[in-house]
Design goal:
The complex is a heterodimer. By secondary structure, chain A is an alpha+beta fold. Chain A is 45% helix and 12% strand. Chain A has helices at residues 3-27, 37-53, 66-78, 90-101, 117-124, 129-152, 157-176, 180-200, 206-238, 251-255, 261-265, 471-479, 492-505, 519-523, 547-572, 580-601, 617-638, 642-665, 667-671, 678-684, and strands at 276-282, 291-298, 313-318, 326-330, 351-356, 363-369, 377-381, 395-399, 416-420, 425-433, 442-448, 458-465, 529-533, 540-543. Chain A has a six-stranded antiparallel beta sheet with strand order 9-8-5-4-1-12, with no helix packed on it. In chain A, strands 2, 3, 6, 7, 10 and 11 form a six-stranded antiparallel beta sheet that branches. In chain A, helix 1 (3-27) runs antiparallel to helix 2 and helix 6 (129-152) runs parallel beside helix 8. Chain B is of the alpha+beta class. The longest helix of chain B has 33 residues, at 342-374. Classes of the chains: A alpha+beta, B alpha+beta. Chain B: This is Dolichyl-phosphate-mannose--protein mannosyltransferase. Chain B: It is a multi-pass membrane protein. Chain B: Belongs to the glycosyltransferase 39 family. Chain B: Its EC number is 2.4.1.109.
């Protein structure tokens, strides 16, 4: 079923090789295959399609990360909201579109893993990398096209087309994975350098230069930003139902989704009044989203480490909906727990008391060390033991996101802090889990403010006006669902910024993975990823590069760098080895190839997340781009005699055929179509660090 | 473990995890004089144009040739020049101005807006007098009420304590390199502090202990920042008002003042950073006299100060980077100067390598050598270091111990994890609780020395006693299959396909069997990291791994603390991921084998380079460990330039003596505005020049100062600020202060230049002649007045908090986030 959307992926996966070829045309005539360029292009496209589409329907099981992406697509089909921190939604949507066109109805459960080869492997399977690489290359290609037309026909339709396409494909690349931003930066910086030279061109009029700069700014800055927003707009428009990641989002966001929280909060009164019954959700919600909670159990008299407590009723934060999460807002000056008619709304700066609904005890804090955070104050529901420990249960309401100092406290929308009147401590979620006596719920403390933090902010989630004066009635009332009306929808920008923020800050558990690797291992291909193993035979699919190509691409980068600096230094001493034209091509090619590689590779050294070999593939494509350029350069400029040139061509052919040979040898691991014997597999394990699965019989 | 990490978090630091120092030197300008003679009177517009584009200032005659040979304006030259363009430096302005002192009046006379320093002598006298006033004022503000408060303030508790450690010669561990603390210790020692004060926590009174020596030393270094900034700006802009403005902004900044008055690393760090910047600027202006005595002096002084900065905190790397970029662009310029022979260029290169790479490196290593030489007694830092390292420290149980060198079958050993603060492989007579893996004996790691840490190493296939004198000694070799028997309980180290108690993806490790008889799950292959098969295994020095034979997993400790049932010791697992991490590498520490001769551990003492490497590994690991907690408020880099929130140095309540580290908001917000203005005016001028606009001769000098001098300062600010955005460690407000120094210098240069530009623009109106003087004077007065308002922040305040109307600071809480 999944193979339909994989089909789309395939087609896109083929395109890189096509783009590749086109791009090379800018630098040189193809060197190895000396056929006509157009013929060459067709042949390469055909070859690309063939290698990528070969036995596409196989295997018919879920492979590796397809688990996740497949799941996400199902969510699109069912319009359920989800949140993925790996990247913006465009890629997912594209896959979903493929699935949709192919008739995939979203009811397949993606939770069973069936148990230059790397680019083939990657683009055959339904993962995002090939899409990313496609748009990366498209961006670079269209920029080159644009740059070429700049010389003779600026502002022609052709010129506009390629310029716009650059911007669009950059934003698509970013829209697929945040990694795309590296290619965007590459294109931007090259464009900036070109624009700077344009400014220095005194043959152009000021108006003309201004036009050029504005056109570039619009195409490369405004359009990508706009498209990026558009992706999210479509994403949020498609996903209007509540889904599995609701809990991570704020109450306001959840309330804007169909089903889920909205079902409960729909029709709640907006303004919190004295006598309101509310549940209070912590805005920060880490490590878990939770609600302010209390229950009959008290703090243990003496903790395990010998410290004492107040032995009053526990106050915690509880990650599940519960009857004990209900609190009543009380005016300290009055005794009633019901809402007046008309209701008296609570405003910023009002002094309030919080009454726990089920136990009618008052929220209290005092100068006693909290159980797990001894530097903060313990928060309890006050029990009078008559031991000269007075009640300190007055709290000042501080609305964090108020618009004026007279603002009223609003359900869902207001983020409030409770500042303790006696000690000026603030009610806060400390993030620690209480031990068994606290049922592993989260600790709530009073902290003397060191600075504003979201873990101190709370918002009302469920809300109703209390009407029962008697405790028994009130308990019944607490059990009954909320009623009344008013619903609030968030604006798109508010929803977008929340989703964006959560995506950027969502921390994944630092999960160790069997096939995770470090950036240093990528260059030398010391690692691989086993994607799939046939349930019975030893047929398997690995992400494994063609080692000949990897090594020669790296060598080409080194050779380029050395040659570049050699030429550069000599030019500085006014010795020009290359004609101007060749030199500027050489520099542009290097800026794209080496620059693209470095930008897509080096940042990984700074990242602390779990990394995989496939993260290197975009960088690799740029590196491979450099390979023919260097070969061509060596043949054109460094081989001085015809003999040398012929020898060099022969070497290139030898190299090329060895690459083909290696590719062929690794074919079983790329396509997973043949089952090899343990001996054959052992023979394919060229590096000790490669993890090839060998069955023990 | 808990205790250790607590102590750790307390240690604050400001550093980076960047690669080790890659010293690049600053550089100089080549044979300037030869070029100058025909060149320095060339028309300014011509010079600026070409100078900006190609950075070449060869004489005009050669220019034509050069232009022909110039690279096309396409990517090539722009690429090559991009980093240069960042700080397209000082060559021309300094060349034309600093070319000789006697030329200055001439220039001044031509540029109508410069104050007319009529004679050379008057100028010199004025020069010294201003410098003296600036220095005196700086010292006066820094030493005023230095003894207040007479209790520990903020991080004095760490750095004062570490100074005491040097005086007492006890070994400790800190995430910063040692120079700063060594100097503090030295200052204390020289002024009669005996190292007996405990420095337990902020707020503790010093009583009779002499703390003034250490505070005085920090204040002394902190006071020099202002003269240094003054001289740097003077050299970059050649303008007294700019330098004066900078000096005033820094003198009257409450933040700089506060930070300079206590026993902290920051005044020392900033001293070296500013000194390095000043020497770099100075040797840049000596560029027309290469290889002269002052040239050598400033060049080597730059190197020395770089070593100093790096020796105090790793933040010193940023100034090294700045000097390095300056040097590269210098060399690039010299290399392109075809009038210089390659030999001369080679000489320039060598001089810089010597002074800016070799010299700092030697000094930096000397600092460490002195550090390890002084600290020769066992102390609180022992546990962070490897067994071999600890053997150096007198008082440590490994000191002067003698053990058999090579591991043999039958030896009784303790096995220590290579990662810091994990401890020894341990087992005890308690089983894993029901429901957590197999019901077998627990295996953990434990930080303290204990009988339960002892294991006997045995052959996997025989249970005979290898210590029987009738058997010959058989050494354990790399790759051998062995069994580890727990000495106290006679159970074997064992692993199997059950998930580990906390790390679910790993396998459980247990003690299994009785009297050494178990099953094949007790077999482990012992491997030495990076060794060949058959090598013997050395006590302490060999780094070994234990690979479980049946499952192929590796013995390691996850570093997670087990619950109550595991006595809060650390979890030991067998990890199926074969990556080499310190968690899964071990070494043999104690070793008892009566059949082998004991040799003194002194033989095993690590070499200096190993000590150096290990110290750095531990420091980097320590820095990585300083992670902010999720649910705590932490200072973010974007808070800093806007002076969002300060730090409590002393006291928080209305009855306390309060000192609050907060920048003078007038100075800081002026700095913020200045950066924006600078970017605006700088890019406008750069674009105008690129478009080939011909500036009037008067403006030439001003734009050059703005672009080149200002550019260097802007680069300094960026280098000392932006890297913090990438750091994962916990950050504090005071990390911004080195960047703030650069930003203040930029402010001085910018306002002076802008006011001169205004004066030039308004030259016809009567306002024009006075606007520059008035502008500078009003800025000076505004700064001084704001200092008068905010000085209690630094000198201390008592009484109600600022939000109360009766507070002396009432009305000054301009941001709600300030809590003083």
């Amino acid at each position: 079923m999944g193979s339909h959307s994989a089909g789309l992926e395939e087609t896109l996966g083929v395109l890189p090789s096509l783009l590749f070829c086109k791009m090379l045309r800018f630098f040189k005539r193809p060197l190895v295959v000396t056929a006509d360029i157009n013929l060459n292009l067709v042949a390469l496209t055909g070859l690309g399609l063939l290698t990528r589409l070969w036995q596409l329907c196989y295997p018919r099981a879920v492979v590796f990360d397809e688990v996740y992406y497949g799941q996400y697509i199902s969510f699109y089909m069912k319009r359920m909201f989800f949140l993925d921190d790996s990247g913006p939604p465009f890629g997912h949507m594209l896959l979903a579109l493929g699935g949709y066109l192919g008739g995939f109805d979203g009811n397949f459960l993606w939770n069973r893993i069936g148990a230059e080869n790397s680019l083939i492997t990657q683009s055959r399977l339904m993962l995002l990398e090939s899409l990313l690489i496609f748009f990366n290359l498209l961006a670079v290609l269209s920029y080159l096209k644009f740059f070429n037309s700049q010389k003779h026909s600026p502002f022609s339709p052709h010129w506009w087309l390629w310029l716009m396409l650059t911007g669009v494909s950059c934003s698509c690349a970013i829209g697929i994975k945040y990694m795309g931003i590296f290619t965007y930066l590459l294109v931007l910086s090259i464009a900036a350098v070109h624009a700077w030279n344009l400014i220095g061109d005194q043959t152009l009029s000021n108006i003309c230069v201004f036009g050029h700069v504005i056109a570039r700014a619009v195409a490369l800055l405004v359009i990508p930003a706009f498209l990026y927003l558009l992706f999210f707009y479509v994403h949020l428009m498609l996903l209007y139902r509540s889904g599995p990641h609701d809990q991570i989002m704020s109450s306001a966001f959840q309330a804007s989704l169909e089903g889920g929280l909205a079902r409960i909060t729909q029709g709640q009164p907006l303004e919190v009044a004295f006598g309101s019954q509310v549940t209070l959700r912590n805005v920060f919600g880490k490590p878990l989203p939770c609600w302010l909670h209390s229950h009959k159990n008290t703090y243990p008299m003496i903790y395990e480490n010998g410290r004492g407590s107040s032995h009053q009723q526990q106050v915690t934060c509880y990650p599940f909906k519960d009857i004990n999460n209900w609190w009543i807002i009380k005016d300290p000056g009055r005794h009633q727990l019901v809402v007046n008619n008309p209701p008296r709304p609570v405003r910023h700066g009002d002094i309030i008391q919080l009454v726990h609904g089920m136990t009618t005890r008052l929220l209290n804090t005092h100068d006693v060390a909290a159980p797990l955070s001894p530097h903060s104050q313990e928060v309890s529901c006050y029990i009078d033991y008559n031991i000269s420990m007075p009640a300190q249960n007055l709290w000042k309401l501080d609305i964090v996101n108020r618009e004026s100092s007279q603002d009223t406290w609003k359900t869902i929308l207001s983020e409030v802090r409770f500042v303790h009147v006696n000690t000026s401590a603030v009610l806060k979620l400390s993030g620690a889990h209480l031990p068994d006596w606290g049922f592993r719920q989260l600790e709530v403390v009073g902290e003397k403010s060191r600075g504003p933090h979201e873990s101190m902010a709370w918002n009302v989630e469920e809300h109703r006006y209390g009407t029962s004066q008697e405790q028994k009635e009130r308990e019944l009332e607490l059990h009954s669902p909320t009623q009344v009306d008013i619903s609030k929808n968030l604006s798109f920008m508010a929803r977008f910024s929340e989703v964006q923020w959560k995506m950027l800050t969502l921390k994944n558990e630092d999960s160790e993975h069997k096939y995770s690797s470090t950036p240093l291992e990528w260059v030398t291909l010391d690692t691989n990823i086993a994607y799939w193993l046939h349930p019975r035979t030893s047929a398997q699919i690995h992400l494994l590069g063609n080692i000949v190509i990897w090594v020669s691409a790296s060598l080409a980068t080194v050779a380029y760098t050395l040659l570049f600096f050699w030429y550069l230094l000599r030019r500085r001493r006014s010795i020009c080895d290359l004609p101007e034209d060749a030199w500027s091509h050489w520099v542009l090619a290097g800026a794209l190839g080496t620059g693209g590689w470095a930008l897509n590779y080096l940042p990984f050294f700074l990242m602390e997340r779990t990394l995989f070999l496939y993260h290197y593939l975009p960088a690799l494509t740029f590196q491979i781009l450099l390979l023919p350029i260097v070969l061509q350069h060596v043949s054109d400029h460094l081989c001085r005699s015809q003999l040398q040139r012929n020898v060099f061509s022969a070497l290139v052919v030898a190299w090329y055929s060895s690459a083909c040979h290696v590719s062929n040898m690794l074919r079983p691991l790329t396509y997973g179509d043949t089952s090899l014997s343990p001996g054959e597999l052992q023979a394919l394990r060229w590096k000790d660090s490669w993890d090839i699965l060998i069955r023990k019989y | 473990m808990l205790y250790a990490s607590g102590r750790f978090l307390a240690a604050r630091a400001a550093t980076t995890l960047h690669a080790p120092p890659r010293a690049r030197g600053p550089a100089l300008r080549g044979k300037r004089r030869e070029l100058q003679i025909p060149g320095h009177l060339e028309t300014p517009s011509y010079d600026s144009l070409t100078g900006l584009r190609t950075r070449s200032s060869a004489p005009p005659a050669r220019r034509v040739v050069l232009r022909k040979g110039r690279m096309p304006p396409a990517i090539g030259s722009s690429h090559a020049g991009s980093e240069l363009r960042l700080r397209r430096g000082r060559c021309a302005p300094q060349a034309s101005r600093a070319g000789g002192r006697d030329k200055v009046p001439q220039v001044a006379a031509r540029s109508l807006k410069r104050p007319a320093w009529s004679s050379w002598r008057f100028e010199t006298a004025g020069w010294w007098a201003t410098l003296a006033v600036v220095t005196l004022l700086s010292f006066a503000t820094r030493f005023h009420r230095l003894d207040q408060p007479a209790h520990i303030c903020w991080d004095e508790t760490h750095f004062g304590k570490m100074g005491s450690y040097y005086i007492n010669r006890t070994f400790f561990f800190d995430v910063h390199p040692p120079l700063g603390k060594m100097l503090i210790g030295l200052a204390g020692y020289l002024t009669g502090y005996d190292g007996t004060f405990l420095f337990q926590k902020p707020g503790d009174s010093y009583e009779h202990h002499n703390y003034m020596g250490m505070r005085g030393f920090c204040a002394f270094l902190g006071s020099w920042l202002i003269p240094f900034a003054y001289l740097t700006v003077l050299d970059l802009s050649k303008s007294f008002p700019a330098a004066l403005l900078t000096a005033a902004l820094l003198t009257f900044d409450t933040g700089c003042l506060t930070l300079s008055q206590y026993i902290l690393l920051d005044p020392i760090l900033m001293f070296f950073i500013m000194a390095a910047m000043l020497s770099m600027v100075k040797y840049n202006s000596c560029a027309n006299r290469p290889f002269s005595a002052p040239w050598w002096f400033w060049l080597s002084l730059t190197g020395i100060n770089l070593a100093g900065a790096l020796g105090v905190k790793f933040v010193g790397l940023f100034i090294i980077l700045q000097v390095g970029l300056n040097t590269i662009s210098d060399l690039w310029y010299l290399f392109g100067d075809l009038s210089l022979s390659l030999v001369t260029v080679g000489k320039h290169l060598t001089a810089r390598i010597l002074c800016l790479i070799v010299l700092p490196l030697v000094l930096y290593m000397t600092i460490f050598a002195v550090h390890v030489m002084i600290l020769n007694k066992s102390g609180p830092g022992d546990g962070f270091f490897s067994s071999a390292f600890q053997a150096r420290l007198s008082g440590n149980s490994l000191h002067n111990a003698s053990v058999p060198e090579h591991l043999a079958y039958g030896s009784v050993i303790t096995v220590k994890n290579l990662r810091m603060a994990i401890g020894y492989l341990h087992s005890h007579r308690h089983l894993y609780p029901e429901g957590i893996g197999a019901l077998q004996q627990q295996v953990t790691t434990y930080l303290h020395k204990d009988y339960n840490n002892l294991w006997i190493i045995k052959k996997h296939n025989s249970n005979t006693d290898p210590l029987d004198p009738s058997f010959p000694v058989e050494f354990v070799r790399h790759g051998d299959i062995i069994r580890l028997e727990h000495k106290e309980t006679t159970r074997n180290l064992h692993s199997h396909y059950h998930e580990a108690p906390l790390t679910r993806k790993h396998l459980q490790v247990t003690g299994y069997g009785i009297n050494g008889t178990g099953d094949s799950n007790d077999f482990w292959r012992i491997e030495v990291v990076n060794r060949k098969f058959g090598n013997r295994i050395k006590v302490l020095r060999s780094r070994i791994r234990f690979i479980h034979l049946v499952t192929g997993c590796v013995l390691g400790s996850s570093g997670k603390i087990l619950p109550k049932w595991g006595w809060e010791q650390l979890e030991v697992t067998c990890t199926p991921y074969l990556k080499e991490t310190a968690n899964s590498i071990w070494n043999i520490e104690e070793h008892i084998n009566p059949k082998l001769p004991n040799i003194s551990l002194d033989v095993l003492q690590p070499s200096f380079s190993e000590i150096l490497l290990e110290s750095h590994m531990v420091m980097i690991w320590g820095n990585n460990g300083l992670k902010p907690k999720d649910n705590e408020f932490t200072s973010k880099p974007w808070h800093w330039p806007i002076n969002y929130q300060g730090l409590h140095f002393s006291g928080a309540n209305d009855t306390d003596f309060r000192v609050y580290l907060l920048g003078n908001p007038v100075v800081w917000w002026l700095n913020l505005v200045s950066i924006a203005l600078y970017l605006l005016s700088g890019s406008t001028i750069a674009i105008a020049l690129q478009r080939g606009v011909q500036l009037p001769a008067e403006l030439e000098g001003l734009t050059r100062v703005l672009l080149r001098g200002g550019g260097q300062l802007l680069l300094g600010w960026m280098l000392h600020y932006f890297p913090f955005f990438l750091m994962g460690r916990i950050l504090y407000f005071h990390h911004y202060f080195p960047a703030m120094l650069f930003s203040t210098m930029l402010t001085g240069v910018l306002w002076d230049t802008l006011l001169r530009l205004c004066a030039w623009g308004l030259a016809s109106s009567p306002l024009g002649s006075r606007i520059h003087v008035m502008g500078i004077l009003s800025l000076l007065l505004a700064t001084a007045y704001s200092f008068y308002l905010f000085h209690p922040l630094a000198y201390g305040m008592i009484g109600p908090l600022a939000q109360e109307p009766e507070s002396p600071m009432a009305g000054l809480r301009w941001l709600e986030s300030w809590d003083f």
